[in-house]
Specification:
241 residues, alpha/beta, 2 domains, 6-stranded mixed beta sheet, 10 strands, binds magnesium ion
């Protein structure tokens, strides 16, 4: 498989928990600089796919490559060393730590490279100016939308080849969702390779080039965001319930 032009190649991925498969024969690609969404209802297996990419799913089969590097059997901490980073479901910020400390903990693998770390921190503050103002505040005291910015910034700080986001819009107020959408669009305009898990179809179509629909642990539909007509949209809505 010649996949060096792809940020991510997944072939025949299956796996789950306690020897029980919850995802089956999942295959898809994310090209370099492309933003791709995985849509699907609760329990479809979206988070499980992201966990597999990060090396966090023990029970799995198939093949996963990030920018041509086979990560199928790689440990999570090696995957996290610049290959992929994830904004986890529910954000999971480090409690009692400032915004800046949360961000710097995301970039801990690069801590000896101070210039690169300050450039990355500047990238985060360029994307989310409010975080620069709040850099000394306790991160968990911020609003939901601001906390999600910290979680995204923390992911950016390891300078990953592939960015994974697990339902970043969950629990956010409409205005915060609009801000999040704008920020993700800017990341995409910077040609970052992004895999976004969402249940909000609008957000996914606004941010991503292509979408896959996962249902019952399988990919059941796929399409280009700019070619999504009313019919395709209705089919996705039906799967999402
Ligand atoms: N740690 C676990 N142990 C056992 N089963 C699990 C575990 N995590 C998830 N599952 C099961 O695997 C299936 C897929 O879960 P997964 O979290 O990947 O779904 P999801 O698409 O991310 O759903 P949601 O939108 O609710 O986050 C579900 O049936 C779930 O109950
Ligand atoms: Mg999930």
């Amino acid at each position: 498989m010649n996949d060096t032009n792809d940020a991510l190649v997944i072939e025949g991925l299956a796996g789950g928990y306690d020897r029980f498969d919850v995802i089956h024969d999942i295959s898809f690609r994310v090209a370099r600089g492309e933003a791709v969404a995985i849509l699907g209802p609760n329990g479809a297996g979206k988070t499980t796919v992201l966990r597999a990419i990060m090396g966090l799913l023990k029970h799995r089969r198939g093949r996963i490559a990030i920018e041509g590097t086979d990560v199928t059997r790689m440990s999570p901490h090696r995957v996290a060393r610049g290959l992929a980073a994830m904004v986890p479901e529910g954000r999971r910020l480090f409690e009692g730590q400032s915004v800046e400390d949360n961000l710097r903990l995301g970039g801990i693998r690069l801590r000896r490279d101070r210039d690169r770390t300050s450039r990355l921190l500047q990238d985060v503050f360029d994307l989310f100016p409010v975080l620069k103002r709040y850099r000394d505040r306790d991160a968990t005291a911020l609003s939901g939308g601001e906390q999600q910015m910290v979680a995204i910034g923390r992911m950016m700080m390891s300078d990953p080849a592939l960015m994974l986001l697990d339902e970043p819009s969950l629990g956010l107020a409409p205005l915060a969702v609009a801000d999040l959408t704008a920020a993700l669009r800017r990341l995409r305009e910077q040609y970052r390779s992004i895999l976004l898990v969402e249940q909000r179809v609008d957000l996914a179509l606004e941010v991503c080039d292509r979408i896959y629909v996962v249902y019952g642990g399988r990919i059941v539909d796929e399409g280009r965001a700019d070619e999504m007509g009313a019919e395709g949209r209705a089919l996705i809505d039906a799967y999402l319930g």
